[in-house]
Amino acid sequence: MKVVRCAAPGKLVFEEHEAPGSPPEGWALVDVAYVGICGTDYHIFEGRHPYLAYPRVMGHEVSGTIAAINAPANLSVGEQVLINPYLACGKCSACRHGKPNCCVAIEVLGVHRDGAMSEQILVPAQNLIAATGLSPVEAATVEFLAIGAHAVRRSMAGPGNRTLVVGAGPIGLGVALFARIARQDVTVMDIDAERLAFAGSQLGFDVIDGSDGSAAEAIAERTAGTGFDIVYDATGNSRSMESAFAFVAHAGVMVMVSVVQGDITFSDPEFHKREMTLIGSRNATHADFQHVIASIHAGKIPIDQLVTHRTTLRDSPRDIAIWAKEKAGLIKAVIEVGRPV
Fold first, then answer.
1. What letter would DSSP give residue 229?
2. What is the pLDDT of residues 71-107, one digit of tens each?
3. How far is C-alpha 284 from the chain's CA centre?
């Protein structure tokens, strides 16, 4: 079968690879239709991912069709599915408490083990989710949107909360969309004018330009000097994450959606003065996937606007290298795998 492998930082190779064969007990073989390209994939390509050993087949935002299944399941051969890419042990404390998204031994497809930039992939049958009623492209967007849905659920915030999403990349926009679905009053902040314009004019969010040094004044103006009830950081930038503490209102909540290598510091007196709640948000759970699917069915997620770039498996080594540097107009890119290349 054809695969795209990241042989080393900066080196993507389109090549022939041995097909997976029949699935072992409890597993399924999936013919891949589409794969979304994530910020994680760009980080792997650039050599900036902390948990990865090369070579690696990337790709964890996946839609496809069941080719074979060797497990009792409510799914059958030929059925369209999407894949939950978080393979959990099922035994650790997190798993026992219903949080396999932060399993102590988690393996993420395309990171800890080979992913779906390939014509076929073997996955545990329990990680398949029916994609009934979704197009293959829509199904391939569910995973990245579930990150945002999970962050909003983690916030435990109710309707009407004044909410700031810092970072207007795909994950941040996903957070903003699901915060709006949760009827929070959402503002998006970024330093990139093009992304802000997209969030404002295309998606209808209030926006704050964080590039001109007046973010604090704009936030004070929007909130009568009190700060936002909920602040989500989706920037992957430690300076931004640290700055965001000052944007949180007294008794407010800070949700760290992005992750960086290294330490994050903050003023303990300011933290305690506000009696802030600080929440980490990692990956997503089955409930979040189902919430995203239902939201797409309900027409609440503008997939056609979010998916701005497309490529094929054969052309993806060239295009990923370009998009890693040239992000003008880029929100979400997908790779078409299902057709012969």
1. E
2. 988 999 999 999 999 999 999 999 999 999 999 999 9
3. 9
70 burial type by CB count under 10 A (0-12 exposed, 13-18 middle, 19+ buried): middle
Angle between helices 136-155 and 286-297 (to 10 degrees): 120
How many contiguous H segments (helices) and E segments (strands) does the chain have? Answer: 11, 17
Strands (E), 101-161: 107-108, 120-124, 128-130
What does the block give as tokens for 230?
């909920």
**Where do the domains of the chain lie, and which CATH numbers do they carry?**
2-132+302-336 (3.90.180.10), 148-280 (3.40.50.720)
Q: Rounded to two decimals, what is the model's pTM?
A: 0.95
CA distances from 167 to 232, 280, 340 (A): 9, 16, 37
Helices 286-297 and 170-181 cross at an angle (nearest 10°) of: 80
Assess contact for 65 and 142: CB atoms under 8 A: no
* CA 270 from centroid of its chain's CA atoms: 31
Angle between helices 39-46 and 316-323 (to 10 degrees): 90
CA dihedral over 333, 138, 294, 122, signed as positive or negative: negative
DSSP string, 156-215: T--TT-EEEEE--SHHHHHHHHHHHHTT-EEEEEES-HHHHHIIIIIT--EEEE-SSS-H
3-state secondary structure of 101: helix
31-65, pLDDT tens digit by residue? Answer: 999 999 999 899 999 987 777 889 999 999 999 99
Q: How many CB atoms neighbour CB 58 within 10 A? A: 31
The end-to-end CA distance of the chain, in Å, is 11
DSSP state letter for 56: B
